[in-house]
Design brief:
Layout: H1 2-43, H2 49-58, H3 65-103, H4 112-135, H5 143-164, H6 172-175, H7 180-218, H8 233-236, H9 238-260
Helix pairs in contact: 1-5, 2-3, 3-4, 5-9, 7-9
Length: 288
């Protein structure tokens, strides 16, 4: 019995590590997609913000000869010169703060290296934007929908991670007024009931996923994103998987709480063993 509980704890730890890695991947991909999409939309405009400001300042229209020069040449040139100055100033400020931290007193740094490194950063940013606009001249296909899919996975995986660390919402006001025996029963039943609800949602998610999977598997070009032929059921799969994990964790924690008693504080242990003073033998008695 003791070795079986140890196996469950180890298995849940491995699942938790996989969840953390997958959440990190989803958040990274979501950030990259949104960043690239926003940059593409911003810098692919026919008339930039600086050019619009100059047109407003000079009371010119974009159709006039002067307005066309401002929109196509003067505005972009001023923007990139300003970006170059900003990069140099940012590098100089960073080097100055680092020198102050290392010396623990007022320190001065030369301006020459800041110009060099600032120019390198500026050139890298310029090359990145030009490459982005060359690869995606009319927008990043499906960036927002894919980012929403990654966000959905990250959000539901965060819920499963909360159950692992027992960070989910519990009714502490009621439990504090119960005696030890009733507290065990209350926590155990609460875990089992929560597992039942999570299992029901996992079942509904499975039905939705199964329907989308059949549409994708039986018909050509159905059940995929418009931008890329990626199946939509990959996103929907988050529902049965995460709710299924939540159901299993709640069920196991409910049984553990009913048998050993609920932990006094949050724990990173599936069975809450970190907060129990358990005997070493396998012949534990039920909480009474």
């Amino acid at each position: 019995m003791k070795s079986f509980r140890a196996f469950l704890r180890q298995l849940d730890t491995w699942v938790y590590r996989g969840e953390k890695a997958l959440v990190g991947f989803c958040l990274s991909m979501m950030t990259i997609l949104i960043f690239i999409d926003v940059m593409q939309r911003t810098f692919s405009r026919p008339v930039g913000k600086v050019a619009k400001f100059l047109l407003w300042l000079t009371s010119e229209t974009a159709e006039s000869e002067t307005g066309q020069a401002i929109a196509s040449t003067i505005g972009p040139a001023l923007f990139w010169v300003g970006a170059w100055v900003f990069c140099i100033a940012a590098v100089q400020s960073a080097r100055h703060m680092r020198a102050q931290r290392d010396a623990e007193k007022e320190a001065s740094v030369s301006f020459g290296p800041s110009i060099v490194f600032g120019s390198i950063f500026w050139a890298a940013f310029f090359a990145f934007l030009k490459g982005l606009l060359w690869c995606f001249p009319s927008g990043v296909p499906g960036a927002q929908k894919f980012a929403l899919g990654f966000m959905m996975w990250a959000g539901f995986l965060g819920a499963t991670m909360a159950t692992h660390t027992r960070k989910h919402i519990v009714v502490d006001a009621v439990k504090k007024k119960l005696d030890p025996l009733m507290s065990c029963i209350f926590s155990g039943l609460g875990g089992v009931v929560a597992a039942a609800f999570a299992g029901y949602f996992a079942f509904l998610g499975y039905l939705q996923w199964h329907e989308e999977y059949l549409d994708w598997a039986t018909e050509e070009g159905v059940g995929v994103f418009e931008a890329l032929p990626i199946p939509i059921w990959i996103v929907t799969l988050a529902l049965p998987v995460t709710f299924g994990i939540i159901a299993v964790r709640f069920f196991v924690m409910g049984l553990a709480d009913m048998w050993y008693g609920p932990p006094e504080q949050s724990t990173s242990d599936l069975l809450g063993m970190d907060d129990y003073d358990l005997p070493s033998a396998d012949s534990e008695e039920p909480a009474s």
